[in-house]
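Hi C.,

You asked whether I'd gotten around to modeling the 110-residue construct. I have! Everything is below, sequence then structure, no commentary in between.
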Amino acid sequence: MITRFPIDDLRTLVARALQAGSYSPAESKRIRAVPDTRTIRYYTTLGLIDRPAEMRGRTAMYEPHHVMQIVAIKRLQAANQSLSDVQERLLGITKKQLTKLADLPDGFWE
């Protein structure tokens, strides 16, 4: 069974993944350490993350790969890459490459 969750849970999972790993946020005051729901929607508009997996009424439902996409974005931003650089880096990325880039902590999904 595929696990799906709303955007608030997506944000919580991203925050947990970043806090558990070796993540140091970008030093820019314009870049949030953990994106809020508005920023997540913006990332979707830019094509940085995939569209929600499903809509349940007006509620967008996300999957684990969305968590990995956002964590990868935050790691790249922490390495001082712009959103356009991030977009180029993530374009056509394989699941294996995304998993490595996101570097979620062991046992994260348990």
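If it helps when you're writing up: Residues 64-78 form the longest helix (15 residues).

Thanks,
B.
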